[in-house]
Amino acid sequence: MFSLEEKITSRTCSGYQDQHPHTILYNILSWRDSDYLSNKLNSNSVAHNCHCEQRRAVCLKDPKATCQVASGVLVKTVCFMRSLPSFSQLPLGDQSSLLRHCWVPLFVLGLAQERIEFEVSDVPNSSILRQILLRPGLSEKEADQPTLAGVHRLRTCLHQLWELDLSPREYAYLKGAMLFNPAVQGLSAMLFIEGLQWEAQGALREAVLLLHPGDASRFRHILIAASAIQAVSHSLVTELFFKPVIGNANMLHLLSEMLFVP
Question: Considering the entire predicted model, what is its pTM?
Answer without folding.
Answer: 0.78
